[in-house]
Design a protein that fits this description.
The chain has one domain (about 5-100): Beta Barrel (Elongation Factor Tu (Ef-tu), domain 3), CATH 2.40.30.10. Helix content is about 0%, strand content about 40%. The chain is built from no helices and eight strands. Strands 1-2-3-6-5-4 form a six-stranded antiparallel β-barrel. A two-stranded antiparallel ribbon has the order 7-8. The two termini are about 15 Å apart.
């Protein structure tokens, strides 16, 4: 997640966060699930989380996508693994969003 100073979110996100995911030329809403040991994700944190897309979209492993709210990029990620059941996927920080370089480790 981008920091507030990078143009990202101003507040934390929790499980059931529902941003838009811009994948290639399409955008789709998805639901994020934080790992059990993570209560919330603060702006600037990098984390691997599970995402359930609400519409079926063809994806490949390592596919890069951006995470947005109201047209504003708040993060970027790439697909690490996929589950054919229920459209679930695990996404991890991509290392960049909107041209900004980001560390691939969790901050804080």
């Amino acid at each position: 997640m981008l920091k507030k100073e990078e143009g990202g979110r101003h507040h934390a996100v929790f499980t059931n966060y529902r941003p838009q995911f811009y994948i290639r030329t399409t955008d789709v809403t998805g639901r994020c699930s934080c790992p059990r040991d993570v209560k919330m994700v603060m702006p600037g944190d990098n984390i691997t989380m599970e995402i359930e897309l609400l519409t079926h979209v063809a994806l490949e492993i390592r596919c890069v996508f951006r995470i947005a709210e109201g047209g504003t990029t708040v993060g970027a990620a790439s697909l690490r693994r996929s589950s054919s059941e229920g459209g679930r996927a695990a996404a991890a920080p991509d290392g960049h969003a909107g041209g900004l370089r980001r560390k691939a480790t969790r901050n804080g």
